[in-house]
Amino acid sequence: MAAQGPLTPSAAYGMISISEAQAIVLEHCRVLPVERVPTHEAVGMVCAEAVVAKDPLPPFPASIKDGYAVVASDGPGEYPLVGEALAGTSGSLKVEPGTVAYITTGAPLPPGADAVVMIEQTEALAPGDDGRKRVKVNKGVVAGADVRPVGVDIGCGTVILHPGDRIGIAEVGLAGSVGAAAVSAYRRPCVAVLSNGDEIVSSDTASLGPGQIRDSNRPMLLAAARETGALVTDMGIVGDKQGSLEETFEKAIQDGADVIITSGGVSMGARDLIKPLLEKKGTIYFGKVCMKPGKPLTFATIEDSGSGRTILVFALPGNPVSSYACFHLVVASALRKCQGWREPSLRRVHVRLSSAAKMDSGRPEFQRARIHWESDGEGAGQFVAKGTGSQLSSRLLSALSANALLEIPQGTGEVPSGATVSAVLVDDLRHMSLQ
Ligand SMILES: Nc1nc2c(c(=O)[nH]1)N[C@H]1C(S)=C(S)[C@@H](COP(=O)(O)OP(=O)(O)OC[C@H]3O[C@@H](n4cnc5c(N)ncnc54)[C@H](O)[C@@H]3O)O[C@H]1N2
Ligand code: MOO
């Protein structure tokens, strides 16, 4: 699709709906190749090859308590001590009826014993005439008491991870238990992030010159991409010069970027150079989306003939909230799909508005909100959304502590307080406020 002319680089693009944009993007995302990763570094990745327990856990009947290994049918009484079974050791120790052995938590139950009596239910006695230590067992136990049978925790052949499962910390621990020091997982995407605009200066600029704005989008997008599990590269700030932009794209591609995220320079201005560059270097699939904020959101692919790779490019609008919303609504699910997520799409919940939400007559709007769970005191309840003040797309404070984007339909007037709307989750609800 060609732009209409140098003064209106976006004019040639028809407006599509956000759901169409999301579908187009996911259609172009390929799951990345599989790599072997040390298991503890694979947290958050998606497993590509099953991990199966080759042996049972515990591999031997193991004591659950520090105490004495006994023959349960002996019952309470005084018994000679025949030795010690300590965790990590094995020996020729045998517990005959009428004897006990000292045992520690996790140690193999000696042959002959069938239960453990915890130390609190015993007393050490003076040695008997034969010089052997003796123990008084005060309480009888049933066979199997305080013993973990072979395989009770993990049976031999148990599938710990199926292909497609996301690896969490429990999975890392379980993989460790079954001897999988490394796992096969889908590679993390390499994401290059740049900011575009002559007015943008880096965050460490102490005093701003005339017309300058500190860069909020690049640190935000680097952090957001990393949060999805991606490996990120900071490509810096690029001014409004086609040549410098192209050089930065080339460098990102040569350095192995799977995905390039830009912000700024994607709308209707004469110096909005991103769309013309993408038209030159690749294929643009959409350049305008019916959403507020985020209308000029642009998605393209670039073929790298050298490596045969297809690079996904997300050109996000410069307004900080537009970048923030577009990342959550479109880029995040793409990065998840590349990493093999079975269901990369956004998670939505229904929420009750605690105050009216103004509708936009031209576009559905994604209003930033903080949601919390409000209990009805009888075991049920619902999510309730609190707004975050002015929803200007330049006002990133509207996203401060937000955990959801309310989907406010296009229309006139307002959605009244108390109405239920759909909300896209943009944060982990573990951080949700409790009031
Ligand atoms: N004539 C029209 N003008 C605009 C339209 C339109 O339809 N017709 N759309 C508006 C919408 S909607 C958006 S969103 C913006 C997006 O424009 P760009 O992507 O080209 O962004 P810029 O013009 O470069 O910047 C917009 C705004 O954001 C500030 N900015 C940019 N980058 C950063 C950054 N990295 N960190 C912090 N702030 C940044 C920039 O200074 C501008 O204030 O276009 C509207 N215009
Ligand atoms: O769509 Mo723009 O992102 O409203 O500000």
From TrEMBL:
GO terms for biological process: Mo-molybdopterin cofactor biosynthetic process. Coiled coil: none annotated. Its cofactor is Mg(2+). Keywords: ATP-binding, Magnesium, Metal-binding, Molybdenum, Molybdenum cofactor biosynthesis, Multifunctional enzyme, Nucleotide-binding, Transferase. One of its GO terms (cellular component) is cytosol. Its EC number is 2.10.1.1, 2.7.7.75. GO terms for molecular function: ATP binding; metal ion binding; molybdopterin adenylyltransferase activity; molybdopterin molybdotransferase activity. It catalyses: molybdopterin + ATP + H(+) = adenylyl-molybdopterin + diphosphate; adenylyl-molybdopterin + molybdate = Mo-molybdopterin + AMP + H(+). Residues 192-337 form the MoaB/Mog domain. The keyword Zinc does not apply. The keyword Nucleotide-binding applies. Pathway: Cofactor biosynthesis; molybdopterin biosynthesis. PROSITE patterns: MOCF_BIOSYNTHESIS_2. Catalyzes two steps in the biosynthesis of the molybdenum cofactor. In the first step, molybdopterin is adenylated. Subsequently, molybdate is inserted into adenylated molybdopterin and AMP is released. PANTHER family: GEPHYRIN, MOLYBDOPTERIN BIOSYNTHESIS PROTEIN. In the N-terminal section; belongs to the MoaB/Mog family. Belongs to the MoeA family. This is Molybdopterin biosynthesis protein CNX1. It comes from Ostreobium quekettii.
